[in-house]
Amino acid sequence: xxxxxxxxxxxxxxxxxxxxxxxxxxxxxxxxxxxxxxxxxxxxxxxxxxxxxxxxxxxxxxxxxxxxxxxxxxxxxxxxxxxxxxxxxxxxxxxxxxxxxxxxxxxxxxxxxxxxxxxxxxxxxxxxxxxxxxxxxxxxxxxxxxxxxxxxxxxxxxxxxxxxxxxxxxxxxxxxxxxxxxxxxxxxxxxxxxxxxxxxxxxxxxxxxxxxxxxxxxxxxxxxxxxxxxxxxxxxxxxxxxxxxxxxxxxxxxxxxxxxxxxxxxxxxxxxxxxxxxxxxxxxxxxxxxxxxxxxxxxxxxxxxxxxxxxxxx
Length: 314
Hints:
Blueprint: E1 2-9, H1 13-27, E2 33-40, H2 47-55, E3 61-66, H3 72-81, E4 87-90, H4 102-110, E5 115-119, H5 127-145, E6 157-160, H6 161-164, H7 177-183, E7 188-192, H8 209-226, H9 230-258, H10 268-298, E8 307-311
Parallel strand pairs: 1-2, 1-4, 2-3, 5-7
Antiparallel strand pairs: 3-8, 4-6, 5-6
């Protein structure tokens, strides 16, 4: 069995040395074959140079350098696509995730689970800017996706490769991987993991990222229910709009014939036309979405990142 640890990072030169040391200490007690893939997401500091120095002569540690910053989801996707592991573990490169938790994740996987999600129960972050928005987002995501996890935002998670390898990730979708996996029948559990305060560097997160998460959640809802039948979503809205347009038209005729009101004396004729036009547009949008869906399923998927170089890959 091969273990792949994927670490996306950006501008973490001060943390890389300690992270490298802690990973080696953990791996000394793990008998499985392992690889660590650092994905440098367009760092402007000396993260890449430091990693290259540390991994020299150690083929188990690998590096992917992006040409520019594509975001954490793209970095995770690149690591997954280039990994050889039967079990894939994701973790942050800022030392807030503790490598010592890796054996705990593996033990749970060996109990028969497909996804093991970390839960930062004692989270070492600011209350109002990080913890409170996270609590609200996790509650909302759990309720909507029907996958009850305390901490979707925790990067530290373990996956069996067969439930994650074919998942295409866009936007900020990496946090929703457990939800994706559940759609395909994956067995999911959660364990408490250690969370440490940031020692060096600056956090890449802020409260405004919560709004991006909400928007991505809307996408997840749509994908979970309508990705293979978008006409049902757009068509439903279209037919309701046509129905209200029909009612509005009937009421307009009633005002004209029964009460003698001129068409131009009320807004009802305009409302009728608007409802009908919107209804037709939504139905046509559904047809276009059906065409795009077929193209999506029948064509090759384009990567959301561009790799500059790969080091220590055969």
